[in-house]
Amino acid sequence: MNNLNTGKVEEKLTAGLDLGDLYTHLCVLDENGEVLEEARVSSTPKAFKQRFRAMPPARLVLEAGTHSPWASRLLESLGHEVVVANPRMLRFIYGNDSKDDRADAAYLARVGKLDPGLLHPLIHRSEEGLAHRALLRSRGAQALHSALAPVGDRGGLRAPPQCQEARGTSFLPVLAQTAQGGNQEKPNKVMSPGG
Fold it and tell me: Cβ distance 16 to 108 under 8 Å?
């Protein structure tokens, strides 16, 4: 990109980040695809802010996973272009027999520099969207739980009218007989564990 004030050409950096639970491996490429830096950063928001705040705006490519939602939001807030790669489209990484986080970071950087569209980028939901989704899921779970909750104090099924007056009786034989149109006798007493 041309900077009109200085007449210099600004280089657009591209970096691949292989996110891990403890550490993130980083590979930074210059405009010509040459490796400028390979590093390892702690996978914490504090370490990310410290490392990427000082970096000029760049395209950062990371694979979707456990840490990618918070990492992508944080890196975008620091002014970087973030591409979250669809892991199903990264056969060259997950199909590779020799797993190496440094190599994976370099692969992500190179493909991100070449054509980010090849990564089939994903867009993570915002924190507000995640909160709304969690609320809807909890309401759905609550509705399901109340629909399946035990009606009485001893079981998960409602006893038929023939059994409601006799607590502690088994109503399954009555259900079977009723379904077959058979005898409607009073149900047998359920034996307690003590006898």
Answer: yes
Which single residue is written with the structure tokens 């739980």? Answer: 145
Q: Give the helix/strand (H/E) hosting 16.
A: strand 13-19
Q: How many CB atoms lie within 10 A of CB 7?
A: 7
Domain coordinates of the chain in residue numbers? 13-127, 150-186
CATH class given for the domain over 13-127? alpha beta
pLDDT score of 163: 54
Give the C-alpha separation, 78 to 169, whole Å: 67
The distance of Cα 57 from the centroid of its chain, to the nearest Å, equals 27
User: Could you write out the DSSP letters of every residue in 109-144?
Assistant: HHHHHH-GGGG--B-PPPHHHHHHHHHHHHHHHHHH
Residue 31, CB half-sphere, CA atoms under 13 Å: how many? 6
CA distance 23 to 20: 5
Q: Categorise residue 120: left if φ over 0, alpha if ψ from -120 to 50, beta otherwise.
A: left
At 78-134, the pLDDT tens digits run: 999 999 988 777 665 555 666 678 888 888 888 888 777 767 676 766 777 767 777
**Verdict on whether the full-model pTM lies above 0.90:** no
